[in-house]
Fold each of these.
Amino acid sequence: MSVQEIFDAVLDLDEDVVVELVKKEIATGTDVSKILNEGLIGAMDEVGKRFTAGDLFVPEMLMAAQSMKAGLDELKPHLAQGATATRGAVIIGTVKGDLHDIGKNLVSMMMEGAGFEVFDVGMDVDTEKFLATAKEKNASIIAMSALLTTTMPAMEEVVKAIREQGLNLKTMIGGAPVTPAFAQKIGADAYCEDAPAAVEAARKFIA
Ligand code: B1M
């Protein structure tokens, strides 16, 4: 039994085993930060690499993220304040008028797995809600998803409102119809093709 086995169980997409092993490691007295960083976050880093290399696909990535999340839920009550690897707060949501949330949920889980404090505001989220939640949670990043060409302009509204209000917030956008050219046109700080790319972009913003 070891943290390596937790890492392996996440890659085996075995949620029940991940939970069981995390419980056992906690009971053994293993440092919870080690379980988090080397077991869960480490495994999700590997999942991201394999996805980027084309060695695994969206369904596997979703199952790995769910396994990681289940392990994280076991770990959370044991994480002393400040002992987490939290990198910073991220607000994530699907923009106004858009009800697609599968990709957004995946990005949210991958970012949580990478150690970010993620506040998922759901779908059909308007500019006011994005900004109010970012202020309330003292977030550094707003991550937006759009799957419809008709809802992409809502991303521009958020970027514009941040600029107009002079807020110190980075914006990241993604979703099937979104392109790097669109991100540049609306002044978003990063375009993210997929969930691992979102993790990478956020890491650049929050060192
Ligand atoms: Co809809 N739908 N849909 N749909 N749907 C699409 C998007 C569509 C391309 C299908 C098609 O016609 N071929 C089309 C859009 C056409 C367009 O705008 N050009 C479409 C349409 C038209 C519609 C409706 C209008 C249909 C209707 O009612 N007439 C309607 C709109 C409802 C609304 O939103 N207001 C609608 C409804 C639905 C369902 C509710 C039935 C369902 C959504 C269920 C849900 O999400 N809970 C649905 C689905 C499932 C799809 C398809 C089939 C699959 C989307 C998906 O989940 N992909 C989709 C066709 C397709 O894309 N092939 C389609 C899997 C997911 C993992 O990928 O979301 O791309 P994706 O996320 C990726 C990346 O894009 C990126 O990372 C993810 C993981 O790597 N990413 C981000 C995503 N968000 C990110 C945010 C980031 C970073 C990266 O933040 C920084």
Amino acid sequence: MALLAVDRDRIAAAARRVMARCDELARVSATSGAIERVYLSPEHARVNRLAAEWMREVGMATRQDAAGNQLGRIDPSTSSGTDGGDAPALLLGSHLDTVPDAGRFDGIVGVLIALEVARLLRAPGDGPARAGLPFALEVIAFSDEEGTRFGKALLGSSAVAGTWDDEWWTLTDADGTSLREAFLEFGLDPARVGEAARRPAELVGYLEAHIEQGPQLDRRGESLAVVSSIASARRFQLTVEGEARHAGGTPYDMRRDALLGASEAALAVESICRAEHHIIGTVGQLEAFPGAVNVVPGEARLSLDLRGEFDGERDRVWLSIERELDAIMGRRGLRWRAQEVHSAPAVFCAPLLQDVVREGILSTLPGGAGDPAVLFSPAGHDGMAIGAITDVGMLFLRNPDGISHHPDEAVSAGDVARGIQALAEAVLQLAADR
Ligand code: HGY
Ligand code: MN
Ligand code: MN
């Protein structure tokens, strides 16, 4: 039975506000004519200020944590009269950082939907917001889910999960700036990153609304889905070494062309992964050195993004890829090596949170009846890190054509409205369950 008193006009207005703010945030970019917002950049600082302003507008107490995540909090209105300031919190949110040439909704729409749910569920009245819930409500805008700048993803949520690794401080961006230097330039103290960590006892759980970034809901003609689990991920930087030589004077039987070895490797990744279920490998970056038109490439560097529904399957496929690359490079007289730059385990969404998300979706269906889709997420999310300290649940919104990490990424205002209603209902169902 649905618990939210649905005011359709209010939810429609909230959805319009979300869409308008997605456009406003899209204008905060490092590159004109495209969306790019990376960790610890001036753009990151600007969207945190905007998010904090919108959180305060809802009456939330706001703070930026020691890893650059932006948070807002509504305490519960407790009958015992305590200030509720130490009440455990349900975290709602997503991320505000982007990939290069991004769409306007990946991450962003989840943060804004969370804000609208907080607005809907705060108790009426002025002054610091209170919520008639048995737990506090926190909205979190994670600062680095994509890993665009330093290659290691989930930096912001890893800090919150208390799984920060000091080895990351020496990671560098394309300009050679280290993560440590970027922290200091942003105004953060690397020595205090541990203060961002939350203890499991402080949290009730984490719920994230996100566009599907795939075509399933669009193909089904449905708006929303429950997420069953989030794919495990491993990312590698591969280096292939051959020998630079003259492009004209060097006969083929004398060549050790690193780019051709890397190209065969990329094709091998595709054919090995195509033969599997729920294992996805992608080479997104490929560079040849010295990179001159008239020089046989002596070195090539390529990325590998490898994901799977289960860690063990993913790791088995990585061994197959390693064996195939050994064979390819052996045939071509090349050497190769791999540096792992990111690894995150698969996270299974907590049954209780899957249930309340399902109740939320049902509340948006005619007569509250239906059979909401339950989808595995091959896309990564901050829940992969947060799963280390609390239960994770996710709600997917239809993403027409499934195109994402691309300017054509889309979501409809109608589906955003249904997402706001479903997430608000899920929170009330969770509260009722407690
Ligand atoms: O890569 C991913 O799956 C996510 O969008 N960061
Ligand atoms: Mn993304
Ligand atoms: Mn995302």
Amino acid sequence: MRATARAHPNIALIKYWGKRDSVRNLPAAGSISATLGDLWTSMTVDLDESLQADVLAVNGRGRADLLPRVARCLDDVLGTSRAAARVASRANFPIAAGIASSASAFAALVVAADAAGGGRRSTAELASLAGRASGSAARSLCGGFVELQPADGDVTVTSLRPASGWPLRVVIAVTDAGPKAVGSTEAMEISRATSPFYARWLEQQADDLAAARAAIAARDFSGLATVAEHNCLKMHSVMWSSRPPIVYWNGVTLDCMRAVRELRSEGSDVFFTIDAGPQVKAFCAAADEARVHAALAAVAGVTDVLVSGLGEAAVPIDDA
Ligand code: DP6
């Protein structure tokens, strides 16, 4: 009745920003991401009949504030007549700062909960359950390059290419490791309700997805760079044009973007993407990693630089 799983965060190349159904947590459009290999969350779920209520510890500290969302996810996987659970998670990277920690956390949670309950569910079912908790978490059920599509009141995830099929590197410049001011769930609802660009953003998503899919199939770095930066900047334009405006960037974020563009103009294979936080994620070819790392580390105000390859699907692990 106890199991542990490990899952990796994923970084969207074509973003999910907006829901068609906020009760079921269904994305309004598809998205494409890459799962990271070197950053991880491990999650232990211990179902204990003698326990009165669920308890949650994150990196060794009790987090009653995060418990309702975790308990709801456990109910979705195990049913509401389940035993209470002792849930403990650990991550090897800063959480709640826009490095997709909720994606790896909920992906690991559904896999661990299912394994603790006997391990009956398919990857497709687990992705659907993770997506209910956090849309982007569904993508962390798969490794490498992953596409998510909403379909028939549910989501499907498809592996577009394994990590080994195009071993890009990701260099993450941390510009502020504190928790974000507005969570993405609330922020995307504000965008849906108020941004004059929201409808256009959704209309163009199919074209961006097709361009990214083709670039990934052909290992066309410059094609992927062009569409991924465009899609990222479009998502942030939707955020900026929301009322109230949602601005996740700081001055250092902009300096990092400029550093990445400079490297590309000098011939490096690198592009940036930014999510609901101020960190800059630079995707690059392995041959350019050292240069990208040095350039981002040299930007004044960058507090940390994390590096990762692409990685594998969420899996149960031996927690002995
Ligand atoms: C900017 O998956 O965190 O990272 O479904 O409300 O939990 P909820 O949202 P979440 O949103 C991720 C937004 C993003 C883009 C992306 O990962 O596609």
Amino acid sequence: MERNKMETQKTGCGNNIRGRFLVLEGIDGSGKSTQVRLLAERLRNEGIPCDKTMEPTDGPFGSQIRQVLTGRIQADPRVLAPLFVADRLDHLLKEGNGLKARVEAGVTVICDRYYYSNYAYQSADLSMDWVIGANEPCRQILRPDLCLFLDVDPDAALERITRNRDHTELFEKKSRLIQTRKDYQEAFRRIGNEENIVTIDGSGSKEEIAERIWEAVRPLFIQSL
Ligand code: ADP
Ligand code: TYD
């Protein structure tokens, strides 16, 4: 039965051929990239056309951002914040394979970070109201069907980062991880009633977390449309 409902969504679910736009958020080292990969595999196994992507992107604006994050370019936070917005708008609108066009063409897209990251990270240096306002064009263009916040203890996240990488970036210090987690919570308090945000317990094995995520995602693909 479940399977039949999935089949209906795969083949275009009646009148509605729009894909879903799913976002994973969390502090650095929370396991987002891992879970984006596992979720994409699961959706594809269900026969749902699915792409995965990330922000900052690997496009021209994203590569500028990465140079700032690794210290190769110095930039004031007031310069970095709108660079993230520019990168996001380019991601949404770029000709050929912009996010908006892909979702409208029926592809489900899973994105590792979106404007919620801007709210949480850039509000350390700028007012959250400013950051929310700056992202309003993105929100108008494409609001996620679901944002999954992978909630992980900062100590556990730091352990994962240092165990597996030979370098750390700007936001990967413990005090910053603690602050960012608080800022996510503050952002969700502010905008939560206008968005579909689900907090996922990010502790345990990769497979356990993937199962929790699947429970939250599955209802979006069961035909009730
Ligand atoms: P993020 O994208 O949020 O920074 P990653 O998915 O890259 O996080 O995970 C950071 C590191 O932690 C990776 O080396 C990954 O293999 C590892 N990792 C991810 N999930 C878990 C988990 N549940 N338990 C232990 N290690 C994990
Ligand atoms: P990334 O290298 O993808 O790290 P992770 O694997 O932890 O997701 O992300 C780069 C950094 O960019 C990360 O520390 C969060 C930060 N960031 C912002 O500060 N604002 C934003 O709008 C986005 C999308 C990311």
